Amino acid sequence: MELTTNVAVGKALLDAIQAHDLRRVRRIATTVEAQRKRQWHVASLRSQGGSGDPQGPGFVSLDAPVEPSGITGFHLACKAWQVHRDWPVSAACFDRMAVALLQAGASPFAEFGALGAKRTIFEELGPGLVPPRVADWLAQQRFDEVCSFAEVVVTKKSHRCKAPQRATA
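^ that's the sequence the OP posted. Answer follows.
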């Protein structure tokens, strides 16, 4: 399947997550990441040459909606983790899928829902309910370049993300 549009990415992620296929999710994430790099390269060549449409085609994204409500593959993996928490093997698989998408560039703060009622996955899951590997990944990130300090503190506190402990000599 050619992953050159956000619709194709969304459909591929939906199919892979519903099939509990971690390898396919990782393959999609890697493919989209490579496709974005190619698109950035082509866009930079066009801008240097002064040719082409300044708007250009849209970049493929791991934040492509998998259904009309705007839910993304990351949202779907986190919700699947929440539903399957009683089944440790399935829950761990969905947790790994969510982290694989984050590592490849999916936004943890993407919003979904009806216009005017948009929410992040963290608001949807509820306080303290976040997949363990996602919480670890969030704790290791430097969000100060993306959002305000207050947003980072609230997110980390409300989801009990702990910074990794540094060894002392």
